[in-house]
């Protein structure tokens, strides 16, 4: 065993063929070396990861950045949390500094900074002596704190116009950023962590029919309303016209015609795909499945009962064929 590992490395595992011919079994320590074969463990790139992330990178689209910026709200929602928080803090910081600078410029051009302590002089904004006081005035008005120490007087029409502009701009920024953060926090992605799929799919006889089966369960007590499951087979094929389709998607029937795809997910359920004449696996034997390149993507969709949010959860079967019972 050690000699074989030194010769072929860790990318290969030792297996043996059982006497019944039912497939390849791992080589145990007590079995003879005359039955040993070397089978490479191929690590294939998944099209869709277990967490539902698609390993697709777009290229040569042209003006890709402008397309994302045209739908800025959705782009911000799709960003990672660290970038979302960075943009949130940066936007508010820049907006606050800009508006505070505008109030300081008005006070500077009117000469309020030098005449603020004169008894009979009426400034544009009372008790604004420098940039920090102008910044505090903006924060007090924008956050509607209103301490009453700094206030706009009626001798400053440009200050009134700036105050109206500040109110409109602040409402727009608040609605955009707070709405974005609220939608991002309400996304039920973490809810998918309590939806469990079986580690392996199996092919076995059920009700006299050869059936591909796997299980799905909900760990929480809250129900999944209108839960529906779908299966996609991703496999390359060539059409009779000679066109090569690298990622052709075929639908696997898991009860669409009978309504079995509509799940009442209060207990773990077994999802079945009957391998009949309409199934893509109908012409595949057990041996051909060992070498066939395909991937099965299982998509579970539903509405979270507690939040009434539509929640898609994706589980990916390995691109290697499922074990056979």
Please give a structural write-up.
By secondary structure, this protein is an alpha+beta fold. The protein has eight helices and twelve strands. The strands form three sheets. Strands 7, 8, 9, 11 and 12 form a five-stranded antiparallel β-sheet that branches. A hairpin with a 6-residue loop joins β1 and β2. α3 crosses α7. The longest helix has 30 residues. The N terminus and C terminus are likely disordered.
Outline the secondary-structure elements.
Blueprint: H1 2-8, E1 12-17, E2 24-26, E3 36-40, H2 64-70, H3 72-78, H4 81-110, H5 112-115, H6 131-142, H7 157-186, E4 195-197, E5 202-206, E6 209-218, E7 224-238, E8 244-252, E9 262-263, E10 269-274, H8 286-291, E11 295-304, E12 310-316
Antiparallel strand pairs: 1-2, 1-3, 4-6, 5-6, 6-10, 7-8, 7-9, 7-11, 11-12
Keywords: Ion channel, Ion transport, Transport
Protein name: G protein-activated inward rectifier potassium channel 1 isoform X4
